[in-house]
Specification:
The protein is an alpha/beta fold and 453 residues long. The chain folds into three domains: 143 residues, FAD/NAD(P)-binding domain (3-Layer(bba) Sandwich), CATH 3.50.50.60; 140 residues, Polyamine Oxidase, Chain A, domain 2; 92 residues, Guanine Nucleotide Dissociation Inhibitor, domain 1. It contains 17 helices and 22 strands. The mean pLDDT is 97.
């Protein structure tokens, strides 16, 4: 058993943990980063599958994500715009594919009016929400006691309007059935992007990509830390003392430190044996947080054939198995790539099928947007984060009904010398790499202040 002594031990080598570790180093503190996986990056993972470079995890950069944008610039990484020239496609309740331009779905005038009115109402509500303190809103308890689906259906009996409004935070972001999380949780998701309108604007939220892949952020951050990043080191035990001091134990390494940062999703905290156990509040809180579930589908073709039809590649439908899809072609690659998403219960149902049946169903759904040629990719891959031992879902963790107002204020509260940092805890940038970087910086700053006190 190797023994190390450091000022800070960081558990998790994703964007949050590596940002924190680099900031701590800059402040003159020594660090050790323990990562359970055999790679860095957490939910960022760029890999080559059958000769095609695919973003298996997170990939997009939106213009409000200042922390990420600053980090990209500091690391010397370049971005490029997502392809969006041409018509988008919407499939309505009748199953017909309709081409359209702009950000308004081609629905009936009455449904369009309802969507517009409720969107305006939601933007006004979101404007009152502090994404770092949603539980502080005067109506937080009320908004956390009603599901997102129930609130929408109380606004209108137009089912198509409800489905289109619901999927932005449901299937698309929190990746849970809309009856499983609250209105307040949905408002937080929107507030983290600046407004509900921003969240539903694909040209905003899915604006740019990083040349060479977004995993370069953690890879380059880890490179700066050198041998202080230890892979394949799942922390089994974390002993801590209220008066200061922690000991992190893996199968191979023991790290003794003054402070610790848990830079991993809250759903993974139970994988660690804490000594003494975490306080009662944290034990209860973590039972009310869970990951969503989405299959990210990558289909690579010999060329971006949809562009020949005048299509942008952007497609939506709350009635389709793949509720949204985009042109995801790689910078500098002449081939065309589509990325589609299958969420929550649809994803559950698909994994009850064989791999061949699953592929057939998904490609059939994509063909409803792009035509029969979509059924014949040269490379096909499904990102299944639900099967990842050290992730257990996608994209991030959220509270069940009532959990955000009950526990949210304590979500980031340190436990003795143990600080917390990950995108699941963020306000601005919640669920995104931007939020992970923000939380890493916040935890590092708090430790530096304590160390100097």
């Amino acid at each position: 058993m190797r023994e190390l002594t450091r000022d800070v031990v960081v558990v998790g080598a994703g964007a949050a943990g590596l940002t924190a570790a680099n900031d701590l180093r800059k402040a003159g503190l020594s660090v050790a980063v323990l990562e359970a996986r055999d790679r860095v990056g957490g939910r960022l993972w760029t890999d080559v599958i059958d000769g095609a470079m695919l973003e298996i995890g997170g990939q997009w950069v939106s213009p409000d994500q200042d922390a990420l944008i600053d980090t990209l610039a500091e690391l010397g990484l370049e971005t490029y715009s997502r392809h969006r020239d041409g018509d988008s496609v919407y499939v309505g309740p009748d199953g017909a594919a309709v081409r359209f331009t702009g950000d308004v779905f081609p629905v009936s005038p009455d449904t369009e009016r309802v969507i517009g009115e409720i969107t305006e109402r939601l933007d006004a509500m979101v404007a009152e929400i502090d994404p770092d303190r949603p539980w502080a809103h005067p109506k937080a308890d009320e908004w956390d006691a009603i599901s997102w689906d129930a609130w929408l259906r109380a606004q209108t009996d137009d089912d198509e309007a409800v489905r289109n409004l619901a999927f932005a935070t449901g299937s698309a972001m929190l990746t849970k059935p809309t009856h499983a999380f609250s209105l307040l949780q949905s408002l937080l998701m929107a507030a983290s992007a600046g407004s509900y309108s921003n969240l539903v604007d694909a040209d905003f939220i899915l604006d740019k990509r990083v040349v060479g892949g977004l995993q370069q952020v953690p890879l380059l951050l880890a490179e700066r830390l050198g041998d202080d990043v230890l892979l394949g080191q799942a922390v089994r035990r974390l002993a801590w003392d209220e008066d200061g001091g922690v000991t992190a134990v893996t199968d191979d390494v023991t790290v003794r430190a003054r402070f610790a940062i848990l830079a991993l999703a809250p759903v993974l905290y139970p994988r660690i044996s804490f000594d003494p156990p975490l306080p009662r509040l944290q034990q209860q809180m973590h039972q009310h947080i869970s990951m969503g579930f989405v299959i990210k589908v990558h289909a690579v073709y010999d060329r971006p054939f949809w562009r020949e039809q005048g299509l942008s590649g952007t497609a939506f439908s709350p009635y389709e198995l793949s509720h949204e899809a985009y042109d995801n072609s790689i910078h500098g690659d002449p081939r065309g790539t589509l990325v589609g998403f299958v969420s929550d219960r649809n994803a559950d149902d698909l994994f009850r099928l064989s791999a061949a049946e699953r592929k057939e169903r998904i490609l059939e759904s994509l063909s409803h947007y792009y035509g029969p040629e979509a059924k014949n990719p040269v490379v096909y891959y499904e990102s299944d984060w639900g099967a990842e031992e050290w992730t257990r879902g996608a994209y991030a963790a959220s509270f069940d009904l009532g959990g955000l107002s009950r526990y949210g204020a304590d979500l980031r509260t340190p436990v003795g010398p143990i600080h917390l940092a990950c995108s699941d805890l963020a306000g601005a940038g919640y669920q995104h790499v931007d939020g992970a970087i923000r939380m890493g910086r916040l935890a590092a700053h708090a430790i530096v202040e304590e160390a100097r006190a």
